[in-house]
Write a structure and sequence with these properties.
Elements lengths: L2 E5 L2 E4 L4 E8 L7 E7 L5 E7 L6 E3 L7 E6 L4 E6 L8 E8 L11 E2 L3 E6 L1
Parallel strand pairs: 2-11
Antiparallel strand pairs: 1-3, 3-8, 4-5, 4-9, 5-6, 7-8, 9-10, 9-11
Length: about 120
């Protein structure tokens, strides 16, 4: 069992930066792949970035490549999403997720946080 709690969201101007954190509890965190998803109003969740359990592999949505960086600290049971050069279209609720699959489909993730709002003003 893994419990996830996101933090770090907020309001930022376009071009600014935010760092999201996802604190995990549970003994199996280090064996789970982790991902960040986001949900725009009225839409399904879309994957933003994912990181393999050992940090050897990362992958990003085309829309955030070069601007966002996912990382994890297994000793600290935390995964991060550094978001730079933010745009108004990045405004969404961001969720972290954990699972054993290396996947982009949210259905393949077993554990979810409650979400944190990111709002980017023009």
């Amino acid at each position: 069992q893994v419990q996830l709690v996101e933090s770090g969201g907020g309001l930022v101007q376009a071009g600014g930066s935010l760092r999201l954190s996802c604190a995990a509890s549970g003994r199996t965190f280090s064996s789970n792949n982790m991902a960040w998803f986001r949900r725009f109003p009225g839409t399904e969740q879309e994957i933003v970035a994912r990181i393999e359990w050992s940090s050897r592999l990362t992958a990003y949505a085309d829309s955030v490549k070069g601007r966002f960086t996912i990382s994890r600290d297994n000793a600290g049971n935390t995964v991060y999403l550094q978001m730079n050069s933010l745009r108004p279209e990045d405004s969404a609720v961001y969720y972290c997720a954990a699972g054993t699959a290396w996947a982009t489909n949210p259905d393949d993730y077993d554990y979810w946080g409650q979400g944190t709002q990111v709002t980017v003003s023009a």
